[in-house]
Amino acid sequence: MKATSAKLPPPAMAAGDMPTGRYRWFLPCAPLLPGLLFMAMFLVFPLMQTAWSSIHDPASGRLSAAAFLHVFQIPAYRHVLWNTIWVALWCALLSMGMGYPVAYWLAVTSEAVRRRALFMIMAPFWTSVLVRNFTWLVLLGRHGPVAGFMRAMGLKGADSLLFNRPLLILAMLHVMLPMAIIAMLPAHRSINRQWLDAGRTMGAGPADLFWRIYLPLSMRGTAAAGLLVFLSALGFFITPMLLGGRHDVLLGEMIILQIDRLQNWTFGNALAVILVIIGGTAIVLTNWLFDLSGTARAAATSRPPAIYDGMARLSGAIGGIVPRRMRPGKRAGVMLACFAWSVITFLGAPLLAMIPMAFTRDSFIVFPPHLGTWHWFALYFHDPLWISATLRSFRIGLGAAVLSVVLSGLAASGIARMQGRMAGVGILAFMVPLAVPPIVIALAQFGLFARVSMIATDSAIMLGHTVLCMPIVFTILLGGFRSYDWQLNQAAATLGASMPQVLTRVLLPLLRPVLVAGLVAGFLTSFDELTVALFLGGGLRTTLPKQMWDAVLLEVSPLLVAVSVVMMLIITVLFVVMESMQRNRATL
C-alpha cells in the first residue's frame, strides 16, 4: 500500500476543489508563505540591518569599512579570528572522526539496540548546553572528583585541569558530537547493501569495499555533519567564557564584549557579519567539494574522487603487511561496538556523575560529597527569583513550540506534496537558521526589537526562540508528512467529508505522534536557549538558563548542581515523551 501510494502524486484535496486559471501554481506554495514571511521578518531583515550597521557610521552618516579593517589590522583581533576558525575546524574534524564509526555501528546493529543507543545519545543532546558546560567545572574543579583522584594517585596537575585549549575543544565536542552522529546516521542507513555484495562478488577486499564504495556513498552525509558542527562552533561563547583560557577568546566572546561592555555596536555588528561570511564560505566550499545540494551527477553514476582510490591502495598495502592473526576479522564488529559504547559513555557519564553532588551537606562542591540532604533543592524551590525564571522559561518555551509547530507544520505539509527542485529550495529556506550562529541571530534581533521598544519582553524572547526552533521542528514534521498517505484525504473527501472534517478527523489524529514530538522538540530547544534570552531579555526578563548563567559567573555552589539536576529531570521526562511518540508513529 505504501509502496504504491508513494509513486502517485499526493493530492491535498479533491480534484473538484482544485482552483483553475493562471494562479493554479500558487496553491502548492501557499502553506509555505506564513513561515517564509516569519523568517523574512525576524531573521532576514534583521540580518540585513546588522550588515548595514556594520558599514554605516552613525556619527558622520557615511559608509565605512573601518570596522572590518580593524579586525585584520590589529594582531589581537586576527588572533581571535584564527582561534575561532581553528577551534571550529578541530571540533568538526573530531566530531566526524568519532561520530562516523558510531553512525556506521548504529546503521548495522539491530533495531532494539539502535533505539536504546539513540536514546542514550539524544538524551545528552537535549540536555542544556549550560548544564553540560557546568558539569566540567564541577568534575574538573580543584575539589572535584578528577582532581581528588589525581591527588590520591600522587599525580601532578590537579589544580590546572580547567581553562585551557584541550578542555575547551573537549567540552565543545561533548556538546556537538551527538548532533554529528544524528546528522550522519541517515546517510549510513540509506546505503544499499547490495552494492557491497556486488563488490564482494567482483573480488573486492574489505579495503576496496570501504574506500571505493561505502565511504563515497556516505561522504556526503559525513561532510554535511562536519559542516553543521563547524557552523555551530563558530558562534560558541558559553563554553569559551566558562572553560577557555586567556588565549582562547573566540569571536562570540568578542561580540559580547563589544556590545555588552563597550557599547561598540558598529564593531560588534562587523564581527557578526564576519562570522556569517566565514560560515557562508564554508557552506560554498563544502558544497563544491561534496555536492551537498545534489546538483551534480548521482553518486551511482559519478566516478569517486581519486583520493578514495589512493586510500584504498594504501589500506590494502597495510593490510597485506599485517600478519593474518593480527587482522581484526570477525573481531571488527566487537571492536566497533566497544568504541561506540565508549563514545556513548563519554556523552552520558559526566552528567550522571554530577547528580550525587546535588545532595551534599557541604556548602561548597567537594568530592566525594557528604550525602544526606535535600537542602539545595528546597532552597531552589523556595527562592522566588529561581521559580520566576523557571516559570518564564516554561511560558516562553510553550509559546515558541506552538508557534514553531504551526508555521513549520504548514510548510512541511506543502513541501511534502511538492516534487522536484521547488521542494529542495523550500527545505533549504527553512534550514537557514542553522547556517547562522545563534549569537548573530540574537544580535540582529536585538536591533529589530529595539526599534519597536520590545526589548525586555517575553514576546520578544519567544519570537527569537521560534526562529531557532523552526528548523528542528520542521525536520521532524517533514518526515511525518512525507510518510503520510495523502490518498486518505482524497478518500474522505470522496465520501463527503469537508476540509475541516478531513483535517480534524483524518489528518491530525494520524499525525498526532509526530506533532507532539515536534512540540516537545521545540519546547526543549527554547527551554535550553541562553543567547537570545541574554540579548533580548535586557537584564530584566530572566529565563532559567539566564539565571543559571548569572549564578555561574558569580559562584559555583551546590545550588547550581541542584538546579542542573532539576533541568536534566525535566528535559529527560519530555524527551521520553517525544521518543514514545516517535515509537508510536513507527508502529502505525
What labels would you give this structure?
MetI-like fold; mainly alpha; 74% helix; disordered N terminus; 588 residues; 28 helices
Structure write-up:
This protein is mostly helical and 588 residues long. The chain has 2 domains: 1-17 and 27-60 and 374-588, MetI-like fold, CATH 1.10.3720; 77-191 and 219-295 and 344-373, MetI-like fold, CATH 1.10.3720. It is 74% helix and 0% strand. Helix 5 (75-108) runs parallel beside helix 9, helix 6 (111-126) packs antiparallel against helix 28 (558-587) and helix 9 (165-189) crosses helix 11 (206-234). The protein is globular, with a radius of gyration of 26 Å.
Short recap of the structure:
The protein is 74% helix and 0% strand. The protein has helices at 2-6, 26-29, 33-55, 66-73, 75-108, 111-126, 129-140, 145-152, 165-189, 193-201, 206-234, 238-243, 251-261, 265-290, 306-321, 331-354, 375-381, 384-416, 421-430, 432-435, 438-451, 458-482, 487-494, 499-510, 512-528, 531-536, 544-554, 558-587.
